[in-house]
Amino acid sequence: MTMAKSDESRWLPDRRTVLKGGAALAGAAAVSGGLTVKEAQSASPAGTMVIAAPATPQSLDSEYDVSLGTFETVAACYDSIVEFEKIPDAGNAEARREDIKDYPDRPGRVNMKGKLAESWEIDAGSKWVRFKLREGVKSHDGNELTADDVVWTWHRKLALGAIGGFYCNTIDLRRPEQVKAESKYVVSINLDNPNPLLLKLQPNLYNPIYDSKKCKEMASTDDPWAKKYIENNVAGFGPYRIESLVRGQQAVFKGRDDYWGGAPKMSTVIFKEVPTSANRVQLLQGGAVDIAQYLQPLELISLKKAQGVAIDTVPATFMLWIELNAKIPPFDKVEVRRAMNFAFPMEQVVKTVFQSIAYPLNGAMPDLYPGFNGSYFEYKQDLAQAKELLKAAGLEGGFETTLAYNAGDPVQEPTAILYQTALKEIGVKLILKKVPAATFYNNVSERKQPMIFYYDSPWCPDPGYSMNLYFHSKSFINYSNYTNAKVDELIDGAAKTADMDARLKMMDDAQKIVMAEAPWTFGVFTNYSMARRADLKGWTYYTSNNIRFQDFYRDA
Residue 208's domain is classified under what CATH number? Predict the structure, then answer.
């Protein structure tokens, strides 16, 4: 697969050429903890997998917490109703990935298989879906899966209205009675209007099914949805249970022999907190850990030569950009936002900060997703054009503004410095604001910074979902405060029809407007890299950009 290129961006590399060099990092906050010397000197037993991660899980409730360790916990301890089929990665024989292509001849236009559901049927207009659950599936606590668990799970989303509430809004699920237990093992979701994401949203990492019997036991009058319990415990049907969790040190997961899909090959997973990426590298090289997560580009490059270490790099949904706050002058002017993009030293950032193992963010959503159009990208660095745009905006003399960046992400500061230097050439004084990792995302969500980095990926592989997430005026993570009535109209229209051709046309029109109005300084696409011991096999890439312990096995 190659990226679409415009005449203005002929220097952009082919995606697979980029991948030959390695992979870009995922920045992470640093917290305390690490392995002991004794642990660092001992290799993992065959059925044990040790992971060096930036941080342990925080809250275990996917309704509220989006920390890195929580992603891994949810993926290990819970199951969804269905999942995307897996296919070999086109450029890496060692890796597999979700098949997220559009299939016009299949129900819901997706290539899925059952997980907690053994079968399903969906309305051709995507107004309802009915799932037949597997019989005999047991939770960590020994309770059998029934339709009541699915109903309770969705009712919890509606009641709490946080991340799950966003999913309800995404498929236009408004009332508890729209999720029905038709029998002990049959459950249906019934919408008032067609919604193309009704099935596609079901495999989402943060759409797990809870053991409602256990949750109800742990609930109280003051806490009817068992928030306190789920914050520190798991109540799911997944392949692992948590044996212990000491935040700031490690979490230990044990595989379930009674898991419906069979006991996982890695019977014990030790998830160690090792805040410094250099230490994670050393532990991987020494054989003390099997996986080192979230490494820097130069570290990944150096590890390619390390004995007994393998680096798998695949195309991913990661995007790094800078929010241009449309409610803070002068970024309320389109000309200024466009000028900021023409001033961005894209080629220099890719080559020096990312060591040529990232590539330009030449669109408004992941280029892996159906409907992506990179031809609207026009922002190869052109300082003369940037000056003309500032002049048209009445800012020929330039202006002063602030760019906030995450102190815990090693690529943001050097990127900001290069940007600062380039902007000086067009009369813009950029003041850099270093924000501690612990408070950085509060700064993002408050939407009070004129400019701030953001690193994210939309988990549902759909153009309407992606565009709605970042560019609808009412979206909770439209952190640029971008508003365009026509874009809202197109996104709303795409959410109300199952006609994929019509949806793709609407999302193409929306991409064209967004790229021209530039609510972001478009940064880079970063790939996903798995740094592992060479004898550890089975890695699969997911659009949620996390790992699933149950995929791995040891080479005999």
Answer: 3.90.76.10
